[in-house]
Design a protein that fits this description.
This protein has helices spanning 4-9, 13-25, 57-63, 99-116, 142-151, 162-170, 189-201, 212-215, 238-262, 277-290, and strands at residues 32-35, 39-45, 67-74, 78-84, 120-127, 130-137, 176-181, 204-210, 222-226, 233-237, 266-271. It is of the alpha/beta class. The chain folds into two domains: 4-29 and 76-290, von Willebrand factor, type A domain (Rossmann fold); 32-74, no CATH class. The chain starts with a helix and ends with a helix. This is DUF58 domain-containing protein.
Length: 291
């Protein structure tokens, strides 16, 4: 599995998405259920009330017994990708990759996998000035639409307010919602959005992005930190603050995961230095569970 920075270096989102996903898709198959689809599966004895159009009359003529032809139809679902594109997603790791760039690649790979599984895919990009939304479709042109929307997305501003988010949470359509975010919030605005999405659509999977230099505090010497959304700055000595940072970070991450699961979200922490393997595998697992 190629690293995210190698995939980003391709400067080709469709190719990067396919390369990130194709290893996991090897051996993965669509879930199927019995029905009246096009692909023949098996015969079943006729029961009163069955649709007579599905009777196999040739078999009945040969055997003097009545059987229905059962088929297999692909089960699918709607996958709604929600990408946080606020300014905090511009944070860069030591490998030079920003959270937004990682999030773009991740969403593209998830869209590719979902499309290969026969699902309808939607995308919403969260901007303070308004939502960029592509409604769910399963046609051949949806992936290029998604790739273009992702490739032309920049991270700016603070998290959208309730009025801006209202059209998103007003849509009540069953879906697997996958939210890619750094969970940077001031007054619980991310949690409120996720709660409303769960009420509107059902299952919510949160992919929480953290850079390695945040998780391991790899900074050295005198460092000036700047809040990318407010512009506030803080100067400190990284060596002196490393232990305190790590002592506070781990309890916060544990509390965040615990809170997410208490509210009914599926939660996964992702290190932006790592491949997308875990996130893609988790999507396939949850898709299989819901199919």
């Amino acid at each position: 599995m190629l690293t995210p920075e190698h995939l980003h270096a391709l400067h080709n989102l469709p190719l990067a998405a396919r390369m990130a996903a194709e290893g996991l898709l090897h051996g993965a198959h669509l879930s199927r259920r019995k029905g009246a689809g096009m692909e023949f599966s098996q015969y079943r004895p006729y029961q009163p009330g069955d649709d007579l159009r599905r009777l196999d009359w040739r078999l009945a003529a040969r055997s003097d017994r009545y059987y229905l032809r059962e088929s297999e139809v692909d089960t699918s679902l709607t996958v709604h990708l929600v990408l946080d594109a606020t300014a905090s997603m511009n944070h860069r790791d030591d490998n030079g990759l920003s959270k937004l760039e990682y999030g773009r690649l991740l969403c593209a790979a998830l869209a590719y996998v979902a499309t290969q599984q026969g699902d309808a895919v939607a995308l919403t990009v969260l901007h303070p000035g308004g939502l960029r939304h592509l409604p769910p479709r399963a046609d051949a042109r949806q992936l290029p639409r998604l790739y273009h929307a992702l490739a032309t997305t920049d991270a700016t501003g603070q998290f959208p307010d309730t009025a801006t988010l209202a059209p998103l949470t007003a849509r009540r359509q069953p879906a697997l919602t996958i939210c890619v975010t750094d969970w940077y919030e001031e007054n619980g605005e991310v949690e409120r959005l996720l709660t409303r999405l769960r009420a509107a659509a059902g299952e919510v999977l949160v992919l929480h992005l953290m850079a390695r230099n945040e998780l391991e505090f790899t900074f050295r010497g005198a460092v000036t930190f700047e809040d990318l959304e407010t512009g506030q700055q803080l100067q400190l000595d990284a060596g002196q603050q490393r232990r305190a940072w790590q002592q506070q970070l781990q309890p916060w991450l544990q509390a965040t995961a615990r809170r997410a699961r208490t509210l009914g979200f599926d939660y996964q922490l992702l290190n932006t230095a790592d491949p997308f393997t875990d996130a893609l595998r988790e999507f396939l697992r949850r898709r299989a569970r819901g199919a």
